[in-house]
Amino acid sequence: MAKDKVCLIINPASGTDSKKNIPEDVASAIDQKKQDLIIRVTGYPEHATEIARQAAKKKYKYVIAAGGDGTVNEVARELVNTDTILGILPLGSGNGLARDLGIPIDIEKALEIIINAHTRKIDYGVANGHIFFCTCGFGFDAFVSGRFAEDKKRGPLGYVRNVLESVVDFRAEEYEITYDEGSLTEKAFILTCANASQYGNEAYIAPNASMDDGMMNVSILKPLNALEIPQTTIQLFTKNIEKNSKMISLLTQKLHIKRASPGLMHMDGEPVLTDSEIEVRVIPKGLNVFTPTPSEINEKKRKENETIFNSLTRWFN
Ligand SMILES: Nc1ncnc2c1ncn2[C@@H]1O[C@H](COP(=O)(O)OP(=O)(O)OP(=O)(O)O)[C@@H](O)[C@H]1O
């Protein structure tokens, strides 16, 4: 019987972790009697897209993206609506998609998820022809993504520094927003379309978003004053942002956004220049991804809650 073809794509520029051992780790984890492994290292932005396009065309069984959300996006956008499955080794700075799917950040464990071969079909979004899997945004998050793309230093700390610097320079814009059930005009600090619930690094902009409900969560955060920033930041990291009085949450399949002039948007954290009018829509269950099983995810959540409970008990005793 012919062997299945598998491709590993490594982005050496993502995140801060070393990728030196990744080829060897993957090669020893997969069953080489049944699978042929091809390893490619990206040499420039969008290189991963070219490699993944060829892999899908040649009917590879799966493609593993070793990198962050930008790399995953570049790979996955060529795998949508094909039979080729996406595997993720989260080696980026934010790793939003992996975190939201319950894929462990520990690479050995993430590799086990691929080997165990449980798959899940997830939705994706399209904004003016650009595909996203986690979030696409037009306000402060797009501004930060532009800064971060120019930054030589990656990793979560790079994000923190860019956010703090951007707060000073960012100016909120007004948006005319038309969704399935109505329309509104708002000046917004953040306007984010979320397929996943978080940007990455456990920053939950749409805590109730589901990646297989065929719907897009839209989070509109009105401009904040300096005193509101600390509480809003806490709400973002504790899945409570929807309790913020400046937050408007919508659920829709389609969205039309109009702003005064063309500008930046981000797709899974990567900045793109786009028109003053933007069409966003959801394509249901178009991507097949290796993920933990539902019972593995529940077990992980149970352990996390237990750890929090134990820490609190220790603290109070
Ligand atoms: N050889 C390369 N040299 C420089 N940049 C590259 C190379 N290969 C890919 N890239 C680009 O690196 C960028 C960052 O990759 P990626 O988004 O995966 O990492 P990250 O930004 O650190 O993580 P995250 O998106 O999870 O925050 C992408 O825009 C990608 O196009």
Automatic annotation (TrEMBL):
NCBIfam families: YegS/Rv2252/BmrU family lipid kinase
Domain DAGKc, chain residue ranges per copy: 1-131
Name of this protein: DAGKc domain-containing protein
Organism phylogeny: Bacteria, Pseudomonadati, Bacteroidota, Bacteroidia, Bacteroidales
PROSITE patterns: DAGK (PS50146)
Species of provenance: Fermentimonas caenicola
Pfam family, one: YegS_C
GO molecular function: ATP binding; kinase activity; metal ion binding
Keywords of the record: ATP-binding, Kinase, Lipid biosynthesis, Lipid metabolism, Magnesium, Metal-binding, Nucleotide-binding, Phospholipid biosynthesis, Phospholipid metabolism, Transferase
Gene3D superfamilies associated with the record: 2.60.200.40, Probable inorganic polyphosphate/atp-NAD kinase, domain 1
GO biological processes: phospholipid biosynthetic process
GO annotation, cellular component aspect: plasma membrane
InterPro entries, alphabetized: ATP-NAD_kinase_N, Diacylglycerol/lipid_kinase, Diacylglycerol_kinase_cat_dom, Lipid_Phosphate_FormReg, NAD/diacylglycerol_kinase_sf, YegS/DAGK_C
Needed cofactors: Mg(2+)
